[in-house]
Amino acid sequence: MRRVVLSLLVAALGVTSGCAYSVNGTPVSAGVLDIEPPFSSGSPDPTSESDSPDANAADEYCGLLSWKDLPYEVRDKSAAPTDTGYDPQFDQSCKWQTSVDSLDVGVTLRFRSGRPITLEQTNGEFVVEDRKVTYFDRTTDTSVQPSCVLVMDYAGGGVGIIVIDGSARYGGICEQGKKIAEVLLAKEPAG
Predict the structure, then answer these.
(1) 74-133: per-residue pLDDT in tens?
(2) What 3-state DSSP class applies to 85?
(3) How far are the Cα atoms of 6, 160, 182 from residue 134, in angstroms, in the given order?
(4) By the 8 A CB rule, do 148 and 137 touch?
(5) 54: CB partners within 8 A, 6+ apart
(6) Looking at the predicted structure, is the pLDDT value of residue 43 above 50?
(7) pLDDT score at 157
(8) CA gyration radius, the chain
(9) Distance between the two ends of the chain, CA-based, in angstroms?
Protein backbone atom coordinates (compact mmCIF):
# COMPACT_ATOMS: atom_id res chain seq x y z
CA MET A 1 0.00 0.00 0.00
CA ARG A 2 2.87 2.39 0.84
CA ARG A 3 4.47 1.71 -2.54
CA VAL A 4 1.22 2.57 -4.33
CA VAL A 5 0.82 5.82 -2.39
CA LEU A 6 4.49 6.72 -2.93
CA SER A 7 4.20 5.95 -6.66
CA LEU A 8 1.12 8.16 -6.94
CA LEU A 9 2.88 11.02 -5.16
CA VAL A 10 5.91 10.76 -7.45
CA ALA A 11 3.64 10.70 -10.52
CA ALA A 12 1.67 13.73 -9.29
CA LEU A 13 4.89 15.63 -8.62
CA GLY A 14 6.13 14.81 -12.12
CA VAL A 15 2.90 16.04 -13.73
CA THR A 16 2.78 19.30 -11.78
CA SER A 17 6.44 20.12 -12.38
CA GLY A 18 5.97 19.43 -16.10
CA CYS A 19 3.25 22.11 -16.25
CA ALA A 20 5.40 24.82 -14.67
CA TYR A 21 6.98 27.60 -16.69
CA SER A 22 9.64 30.12 -15.82
CA VAL A 23 8.99 33.85 -15.66
CA ASN A 24 11.80 36.24 -16.44
CA GLY A 25 12.02 39.81 -15.20
CA THR A 26 10.27 41.62 -12.43
CA PRO A 27 6.74 43.01 -12.20
CA VAL A 28 6.31 46.59 -13.35
CA SER A 29 3.55 49.09 -12.73
CA ALA A 30 1.03 49.99 -15.44
CA GLY A 31 2.22 52.46 -18.03
CA VAL A 32 5.89 51.49 -17.79
CA LEU A 33 5.97 49.24 -20.85
CA ASP A 34 8.93 50.80 -22.57
CA ILE A 35 12.66 50.79 -22.38
CA GLU A 36 14.99 53.54 -23.45
CA PRO A 37 15.16 52.82 -27.18
CA PRO A 38 18.76 52.24 -28.27
CA PHE A 39 18.05 53.82 -31.67
CA SER A 40 20.26 56.23 -33.56
CA SER A 41 19.93 57.88 -36.93
CA GLY A 42 22.18 60.91 -36.85
CA SER A 43 21.05 64.39 -35.98
CA PRO A 44 17.78 65.48 -37.57
CA ASP A 45 17.75 68.19 -40.22
CA PRO A 46 15.75 71.08 -38.71
CA THR A 47 14.23 71.90 -42.10
CA SER A 48 13.30 68.33 -42.93
CA GLU A 49 9.64 67.64 -43.67
CA SER A 50 9.92 64.40 -41.69
CA ASP A 51 10.30 66.40 -38.47
CA SER A 52 6.69 67.56 -38.67
CA PRO A 53 4.50 64.47 -38.44
CA ASP A 54 1.71 64.11 -40.95
CA ALA A 55 -1.42 63.06 -39.06
CA ASN A 56 -2.68 60.93 -41.95
CA ALA A 57 0.64 59.10 -42.26
CA ALA A 58 0.70 58.64 -38.50
CA ASP A 59 -2.71 56.98 -38.51
CA GLU A 60 -1.67 54.90 -41.50
CA TYR A 61 1.40 53.49 -39.75
CA CYS A 62 -0.34 52.70 -36.45
CA GLY A 63 -3.15 51.03 -38.36
CA LEU A 64 -0.76 48.52 -39.92
CA LEU A 65 -0.57 46.41 -36.76
CA SER A 66 -3.40 45.29 -34.52
CA TRP A 67 -4.01 43.09 -31.50
CA LYS A 68 -5.01 40.34 -33.97
CA ASP A 69 -1.37 40.27 -35.16
CA LEU A 70 -0.02 39.84 -31.63
CA PRO A 71 0.02 36.64 -29.54
CA TYR A 72 -1.25 38.26 -26.33
CA GLU A 73 -4.65 37.46 -24.86
CA VAL A 74 -6.85 40.56 -24.68
CA ARG A 75 -10.62 40.91 -24.41
CA ASP A 76 -11.04 43.03 -27.54
CA LYS A 77 -8.74 42.05 -30.41
CA SER A 78 -10.16 44.98 -32.45
CA ALA A 79 -9.18 47.60 -29.82
CA ALA A 80 -6.96 50.52 -30.79
CA PRO A 81 -3.32 50.68 -29.68
CA THR A 82 -2.86 51.39 -25.98
CA ASP A 83 -1.01 54.64 -26.72
CA THR A 84 0.07 56.63 -29.78
CA GLY A 85 2.27 59.65 -30.38
CA TYR A 86 4.18 59.33 -27.12
CA ASP A 87 7.72 59.63 -28.56
CA PRO A 88 8.23 63.08 -30.15
CA GLN A 89 11.57 62.06 -31.69
CA PHE A 90 9.71 59.98 -34.28
CA ASP A 91 7.00 60.75 -36.82
CA GLN A 92 4.80 58.10 -35.25
CA SER A 93 4.95 55.93 -32.16
CA CYS A 94 2.43 53.27 -31.10
CA LYS A 95 2.15 50.88 -28.17
CA TRP A 96 0.13 47.72 -27.53
CA GLN A 97 0.33 46.84 -23.83
CA THR A 98 -1.39 44.23 -21.68
CA SER A 99 -0.72 42.35 -18.44
CA VAL A 100 0.12 38.69 -18.00
CA ASP A 101 -0.15 37.81 -14.33
CA SER A 102 1.80 40.67 -12.74
CA LEU A 103 3.97 41.46 -15.79
CA ASP A 104 3.29 44.05 -18.47
CA VAL A 105 3.98 42.71 -21.96
CA GLY A 106 3.58 44.16 -25.41
CA VAL A 107 5.03 45.88 -28.45
CA THR A 108 6.08 49.40 -29.29
CA LEU A 109 6.64 50.72 -32.80
CA ARG A 110 8.41 53.89 -33.90
CA PHE A 111 8.30 55.15 -37.50
CA ARG A 112 10.49 57.76 -39.14
CA SER A 113 9.98 59.10 -42.66
CA GLY A 114 12.84 59.82 -45.04
CA ARG A 115 15.72 58.22 -43.13
CA PRO A 116 16.50 54.87 -41.56
CA ILE A 117 16.56 53.98 -37.90
CA THR A 118 19.65 52.15 -36.70
CA LEU A 119 20.69 50.47 -33.47
CA GLU A 120 23.57 51.69 -31.34
CA GLN A 121 24.36 48.06 -30.49
CA THR A 122 23.35 44.83 -32.25
CA ASN A 123 23.83 41.13 -31.71
CA GLY A 124 22.12 39.64 -34.74
CA GLU A 125 20.18 40.02 -37.95
CA PHE A 126 17.88 38.05 -40.20
CA VAL A 127 16.19 38.54 -43.56
CA VAL A 128 12.43 38.83 -43.91
CA GLU A 129 11.10 38.96 -47.48
CA ASP A 130 14.46 40.19 -48.85
CA ARG A 131 14.69 42.91 -46.16
CA LYS A 132 17.46 42.92 -43.56
CA VAL A 133 16.18 43.20 -39.98
CA THR A 134 18.83 44.01 -37.38
CA TYR A 135 18.15 43.25 -33.75
CA PHE A 136 19.48 43.62 -30.23
CA ASP A 137 18.35 40.76 -27.99
CA ARG A 138 18.10 41.95 -24.38
CA THR A 139 16.43 38.92 -22.83
CA THR A 140 19.28 38.35 -20.39
CA ASP A 141 20.11 42.02 -19.68
CA THR A 142 19.08 42.54 -16.05
CA SER A 143 19.16 46.35 -16.39
CA VAL A 144 15.97 46.35 -18.53
CA GLN A 145 12.82 44.29 -18.91
CA PRO A 146 13.40 41.21 -21.11
CA SER A 147 13.11 42.64 -24.61
CA CYS A 148 14.20 42.53 -28.21
CA VAL A 149 14.76 45.70 -30.24
CA LEU A 150 14.56 45.40 -34.03
CA VAL A 151 15.01 47.89 -36.88
CA MET A 152 14.55 47.79 -40.63
CA ASP A 153 14.24 50.16 -43.56
CA TYR A 154 10.56 50.75 -44.16
CA ALA A 155 8.33 52.80 -46.49
CA GLY A 156 11.13 55.16 -47.51
CA GLY A 157 12.23 55.60 -43.90
CA GLY A 158 12.62 53.27 -40.96
CA VAL A 159 10.74 51.38 -38.29
CA GLY A 160 11.90 50.40 -34.82
CA ILE A 161 10.15 47.53 -33.06
CA ILE A 162 10.52 46.77 -29.36
CA VAL A 163 8.98 43.59 -27.98
CA ILE A 164 8.85 43.44 -24.17
CA ASP A 165 7.81 40.12 -22.68
CA GLY A 166 9.19 38.64 -19.50
CA SER A 167 6.36 36.10 -19.24
CA ALA A 168 8.04 33.41 -21.39
CA ARG A 169 4.56 32.38 -22.59
CA TYR A 170 4.59 33.52 -26.20
CA GLY A 171 7.81 32.14 -27.60
CA GLY A 172 11.15 33.84 -28.10
CA ILE A 173 10.99 37.62 -27.88
CA CYS A 174 13.02 38.20 -31.05
CA GLU A 175 10.86 35.61 -32.85
CA GLN A 176 7.82 37.67 -31.86
CA GLY A 177 9.58 40.70 -33.36
CA LYS A 178 10.33 38.80 -36.56
CA LYS A 179 6.63 37.95 -36.95
CA ILE A 180 5.73 41.62 -36.45
CA ALA A 181 8.27 42.57 -39.14
CA GLU A 182 6.59 40.04 -41.48
CA VAL A 183 3.17 41.61 -40.82
CA LEU A 184 4.48 45.12 -41.41
CA LEU A 185 6.23 44.15 -44.64
CA ALA A 186 3.08 42.49 -45.95
CA LYS A 187 1.25 45.81 -45.40
CA GLU A 188 4.06 48.23 -46.31
CA PRO A 189 2.80 51.48 -47.83
CA ALA A 190 4.67 52.98 -50.80
CA GLY A 191 7.59 55.04 -49.55
Answers:
(1) 999 999 999 999 999 999 999 999 998 888 899 999 999 999 999 999 999 999 999 999
(2) coil
(3) 53, 10, 14
(4) yes
(5) 91, 113
(6) no
(7) 94
(8) 20
(9) 74
